[in-house]
Specification:
The chain folds into two domains: about 160 residues, Rossmann fold, CATH 3.40.50; about 70 residues, no CATH class. A hairpin with a 4-residue loop joins strand 8 and strand 9. The protein is built from nine helices and nine strands. With about 250 residues, the chain is of the alpha/beta class. The protein is globular. Helix content is about 35%, strand content about 25%. A nine-stranded mixed sheet has the order 4-1-2-9-8-3-7-6-5, with helices on both faces.
Length: about 250
Amino acid sequence: MKKCVLSIEHLQKNYHDKNGEIVAIKDVSFDVYDGEFLSIVGPSGCGKSTLLSILAKIDKKSGGEIKYHSDNIILGYMLQSDFLFPWRTILENCLLGLEINKTLDEKKKQRVIDLLNTYGLGDFINKYPDSLSGGMKQRVALIRTLAIDPDILLLDEAFSALDFQTRSVLADDVYKIIKSEGKTAIMVTHNLSEAITMSDRIIVLTKRPSVVKKIYNIKLTDKSTPINNRKCPEFNDYYDRIWRDLDVHL
Ligand code: ADP
């Protein structure tokens, strides 16, 4: 039995604007287990990004509990845009989080250099972001996130700014990196294929005000990398079932 690292209990989030109160998240509860890749899907506007920003402690909840089951948990947050600084080299960009945390030392710097080398960016360590493709920049953004050695990675539509091919290859890379580094990941996506091919579990939210509609344990025969996982016999069945759960009307 895997260790539970995070429990979300009856989470609620209300926003206030000039028209009054918007209940974005009504009642969402689920656990997150050590080393798992968990995706959150749901109709547009149901509160997926809000949920992630509350987990990242950027936004405040209106009710319920968020329980991290260890002290001093480190969270890594990766967004759609890579947010690399153009005037810093790739290595300097990757060291930013450690500089901000004031925890940069030679050992940690060497670990970041090792990550860049291991994941195909060794030749770009002293180059600037404008010499990299969109997919490579997102890989750098992931390594910058890993540099602080997070316990949990939060990925918010991290690939959606990229074209289909780059996105698929990057999703493969990110999956391999996260799994080989043994990280727990929570990903928000509107892309069902990505969710099914990358995740151990998928949480499906209803439309706003959201509650958990279903939780899927994704079991794929001959599971390997996300690109290959599309060929697994169960893929289409999961896709159809989750698509129906989303209940999208145009
Ligand atoms: P999703 O990521 O599922 O598309 P969001 O989390 O971005 O949804 O938004 C959930 C709901 O909360 C939306 O209806 C959105 O309009 C509303 N919302 C998000 N941020 C704010 C805000 N700062 N002020 C008011 N309403 C907001």
